[in-house]
Amino acid sequence: AQKITQTQPGMFVQEKEAVTLDCTYDTSDQSYGLFWYKQPSSGEMIFLIYQGSYDEQNATEGRYSLNFQKARKSANLVISASQLGDSAMYFCAMREGHRGATNKLIFGTGTLLAVQP
Amino acid sequence: GAVVSQHPSWVICKSGTSVKIECRSLDFQATTMFWYRQFPKQSLMLMATSNEGSKATYEQGVEKDKFLINHASLTLSTLTVTSAHPEDSSFYICSARVLGNQPQHFGDGTRLSIL
Lengths: 117, 115
What we know:
The complex is a heterodimer of chains A (117) and B (115). Chain A is mostly beta strands and 117 residues long. Chain A has strands at 3-5, 10-14, 19-21, 24-26, 32-39, 46-52, 60-61, 64-69, 74-79, 88-96, 105-107, 111-116. In chain A, strands 2, 5, 6, 10, 11 and 12 form a 6-stranded mixed beta sheet that branches. The radius of gyration of chain A is 14 Å and the shape is globular. With 115 residues, chain B is mostly beta strands.
């Protein structure tokens, strides 16, 4: 069964430091997509970054980068130069490939990141 | 970027009433919309997937008669919680997707409190 695992329930990071949020996944599909979303205390889900299973290069979006290690089935999020506004819950999610018509997302349990001044 | 609007943002109502939540894609046409439920400090749980013009596909354990979903157009899906009870209190959030590898874009969510 498809599964996303985030083993860090919470993390602290000092402002301006880099932080890595862990995510491992399990799937039998060859084609899949991996996503990271940020959820502030206000509740909205903000899309951060996407990595396709066939993408050879790690995805980057500004201060966000995804450390994709396919053999290890990991897709860790790296946030560089942390800012106070980065404090939020972070969810890793996987979309299965082309099986079925919906391509629904499976979410991990989330990591609560607290950035300290 | 793609914008999804969800309304209302919060609802407080009495037990037994029905509550309708709207999810609109403002600047794109969404062939598929998703409805999630999130309990405090937990992850998002998919409730159902709705495709424009067809019946919604519900996840196992979700009562289709309790949570009515209508996706009448490419920009609007509605979730109606019928005869809501306190145990239905939760954070409901929708998302919309165009096609293919595009990410799901989420609404701001609706906090539902049933007294």
